[in-house]
Amino acid sequence: MDTLLQDIRYATRKLARTPGFTFIAVATLALAIGATSSIFSIVNGVLLKPLPFANPDRLVFVASLNRDNQTNPMSTPDFLDYRDQSKSFEGMAAIDHSPMILTGNGTQPIRLQATLVGARFFDLLGVKPERGRTFAANEDAKDAAHVVVLSDHVWRNQFGADARLVGQQIRLDGDVFTVIGIAPPSLNYPAHSDVWVPFVFQPYQLDPSNRGAHSHFAIARLKNGVTVDQAKADVATIAKRLEKLYPESNTNFRGTAIPLQEEIVGKVDKALYAMFGAVAFVLLIACANVANLLLVRASARESEMAVRTALGAGRTRIVRQLVTESVLLSTMGAVVGTALAAWAVDAVVSFGPRGLPRLDEVSLDGTVLLFTLGIAVFTGLLFGLVPAIHAARADIAQMLRESVRGSSKGGAHRTRSALVIAEVSLAVVLLVGAGLLIRSFVQLINVDPGFRPKNVVAFNLSLPSSKYQYERDVRAVVADLTQRLRQLPGTEEVGVTFGRPLDNSGMIRTSFEVKGWAPSTPQNRHVTEVHMASPEFFKAMGIPLIRGRLYTPAENRLDAAPTAVVTQSFVKKYFPNDDPIGKVMTFGITHDTAESGKTSVTLTGQIIGVVGDVKQQDLATSSYPTSYVPFNNFAIGFFSVLVRTQAEPPAVMTGIRAAVREIDRDVPVFGLTTMTQAVSDSVSQPRFYMILLGAFAAIALLLAALGIYCVISYTVSQRTRELGIRIALGATREKVVRLVIGHGVWLAAAGVLLGALASVQLTRVIASLMFGVGHLDPLTFIAVPVCLLAVATLASYLPAKRASKVDPVIAMRNE
């Protein structure tokens, strides 16, 4: 221990005597270690950290799979069959979502994300409440009292963390609920849940005819000894049995069970691991750079090493001393890097991309700090061993003879060159990856969304069913609201729809039949996405009419003949060689209306026009065959309003809030934004990955340039006598410049070649993140080498310029 402390004190003094070298080395390492720690904190928080549940590896997500092998909700009858017939689970709980409006707590009405869950939900997760209790076994029964469990953030933000709230009543959607518990702060499942209420199945959901209505998912806990694969096979067997019993509704639908953590993480795991791999490349480049600096520094310390060896210091002692210096350097870099990582993590958590799961769990916790410490030791050994071994292997007599002239050993020179080539190779891979993502992002943002987002303000409303029970009530609110909004200064048009583009808050996919066609079969079912939209919606959004006409306000009445407008993708799929205009569709949707005098009305419509495709989910997802029907034909209490205006958005938003408040003070406005912002938000994740990889690539390029500069600069200093002789013998200054630059460009060219070959394979890792660009994009593979060779030329120019000014007389005199 005394020897180690002595080594640390000596290393500290040596580093303090070379502040320039120490600053550059520490800054390089801090940048690389900080970036590595920040990305690891994201990977750890999102992917590696166990879910905050009891034995989370025993929890699975149960769902249907459609014919495209995509996760799909299940119907209530199917859920009951899975729950009752499965032999793999201790229990199963259904999950659905429903916005609810909190009123009467002394503030403005607030929209909450309510999660409907089976009574066993909390027991299956193994979650204990922070206060109060969770649901009892019978509290999801039809005649049970209304109870609710609040999230910790709603309890604190809306009720001031009132410890007396448990047992009191609150009003949600106009109904009275008793608060029975407060969830722990760690519970955020499903994501963004504000409150949890018992999932009470309604008679229409339990009706056997509703088996084709896929509306909710489920979670389950595996029995002891049962694996996920066994549970998956169990559910699949039940699904096959249901398909035989109910071919009309269940054909082409299968059941599946996947680990809950896998379902929560979704598709971001590959992207985050790719980012982690990229930052590891940056760390390796930084290590190579610092190793090069240490090799140069070791050359200046040859006489010191010779004297220490002559005085009896063994090779092991010298290696240990030099490695101690390198680990001390990396530790200093890690300390600064941790501060940088803390800032980066706070920025990601505050401004992270939309849809990144478990973002609130990302932090610089003990695991990340331990990882950073490990990285510090590892990098210290990685970049310190090579210079230390070179110094320990040196010949004493040779060093004493050459220390006077400061010549460099050939082995060290080759090592420095190899390190630079490795740096450039790694930089090429990062630059190619960043270039591909940049090209992909440019392609993505240039995708036509199918509407004109500029000057459109959008918002959502959710009318409580207890107060607006019938469709006529919803239609009255829509008519009043649109009239008020048209009177706002600058308003050009106001449209209403269920499920606005790029919002993912409302969507109905249903089967349909066409009059005159043979009925569809379970194996070949006609399916369309249906949106209820007012006649003004198309103008408000700027959706182009391709053929035919749009329905009119007069056709937006119950007593008018039902009409429909379809999209180009609908026509391409279902009418590739036929004219859809005039065809009559019957949708697989029924709904209740007070005016009809019937218990249910089937939605129908005659096709009168074709409009352009609209990107509903995001810009990268192909448009689904879609049908639009007049909003008043099926007036849903949850809808979106779109206002095309020439006024400034803040003024319009103020007017919108005032108009809604005048109609009903208990209905909050939510999702208020501009469609321009909605388009931007829809590409937030691709933008995030592009910025991350672009930043890593920029750091790599800078470090590679610094590495080339250091090697060429040191080479020039060692070749002063040779260059002086060349100039004395008649070599022109320009030729000397070309000679030196040529050496730097040769190193870069070797690295570019190796990096390009590696990129051909490694860029496949990010293929899933790209849009409209192949992983072998020619433009990127041409631009990156040209860029790196240009940077190498620039990095070599300054040493070359200095070499051209060598005075032969002075050079020979100094030698």
User: What's the main sheet like?
Assistant: 6 strands, mixed, barrel
**What is the tally of helical segments?**
25
Shape: elongated
Give the strand order of the largest sheet, numbering strands 1, 2, ... along the chain.
Answer: 3-4-9-6-8-7
List segments where confidence is low: pLDDT < 50 over at least 5 consecutive residues.
403-408
Amino- and carboxy-terminal Cα gap: 44 Å
* β-strand number: 22
Structural domains: how many: 4
Evaluate the radius of gyration: 34 Å
- Mean pLDDT figure: 87
Helix share, percent? 40-55%
List the helices and strands and how they pair.
Blueprint: H1 2-17, H2 19-48, E1 59-65, E2 71-72, H3 76-85, E3 89-103, E4 110-117, H4 121-125, E5 131-132, E6 147-150, H5 152-159, E7 169-172, E8 175-182, E9 195-198, H6 203-206, E10 217-222, H7 228-245, H8 247-250, E11 254-259, H9 260-265, H10 268-300, H11 302-310, H12 315-351, H13 366-393, H14 396-402, H15 410-445, E12 456-462, H16 471-486, E13 491-497, E14 508-514, E15 527-533, H17 537-541, E16 545-548, E17 563-567, H18 568-574, E18 584-591, E19 601-611, E20 626-630, E21 638-645, H19 649-663, E22 670-674, H20 675-682, H21 684-718, H22 720-728, H23 733-762, H24 778-804, H25 808-814
Parallel strand pairs: 4-9, 6-8, 15-20, 17-19
Antiparallel strand pairs: 1-2, 1-10, 1-11, 3-4, 3-7, 3-10, 5-8, 6-9, 7-8, 12-21, 12-22, 13-21, 14-15, 14-18, 16-19, 17-20, 18-19
Describe the structure.
By secondary structure, this protein is of the alpha+beta class. It has 4 domains: 194 residues, no CATH class; 186 residues, no CATH class; 153 residues, no CATH class; 196 residues, no CATH class. It is 50% helix and 17% strand. The chain has 25 helices and 22 strands. The strands form 3 sheets. A 6-stranded mixed beta barrel has the order 3-4-9-6-8-7. The longest helix has 37 residues. The radius of gyration is 34 Å and the shape is elongated. The two termini are 44 Å apart. About 1% of the residues have low confidence.
